[in-house]
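BUG: 3D viewer hangs when loading the predicted structure for this chain

Environment: internal workstation, default settings.
Expected: structure renders.
Actual: progress bar stalls at 90%.

Input used:
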Amino acid sequence: MKPLKSMSPQRSLSIGVAAAAALVAWMLAAAAMAQSGPVAGPGVPVIAVSGNAEVAATPDRATVSLGAVVESKQAQDAQKQIGQIMQRVIKDIKAQGIPDEKIRTAGLSLQPVYSHPAPRTGQDPEAPRIVGYRAANTVRVHIDDLERVGGVIDAGIAAGANQLNGLTFDLRDDLKYRQKALQLGAQEARSKAEALAAALNLQVGEVIEVREESGPVSYPAERRLAAPSAAGTPIQPGQVQVSAGVQVRFRLVGPQK
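Structure tokens produced before the viewer hung:
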């Protein structure tokens, strides 16, 4: 009788690894099936609805965009003037208690200014010619203390800024408001499904699928302000709206009893 050949350690190890990998793959597949929830099979009635909601919140952050525009016959002079103005603007904004990291240059440009001579009778129109240069610089300031917003605007304009491009309010952390909006959106989705099911003499069964609708959070609280008066720029933040939406698929059962 021939003795049995022993399996080499390398081959034994490879078989063991392959078996372990197969077992892990099977476990992952089983877990995925367990977490996927009920699946609507062929012929099973399903209803898909969407729900959207908005939650009002008091803003805790503001963003101010302001800057300056100057014109000069020489490009270098225009650039020099705008640089001097914005240095004063930034310095005075910092004096309002705004740290460096909250101030960012948002726009910088230098463009020629053209003259368009009126055409003379019987002559070809003259080509436009450069008569000067326009330099512009804009900074965006993030303000965490809303009581400082008016002072920042006043300080910037007093320092030479002649453009106030806008003021927006938002939230530093909108998670709890977004969660609330999602809950309300889900409730609206179920309410829609129940209304449709009742109209068809059916009932809403278990949830088959839930998806959060992608999209930006809405902060429609933008203010454009005129130049401040001697009494200072009044600021009223109001409220912002945090929106969210969901899509839900329900199984339909019934009819109603």
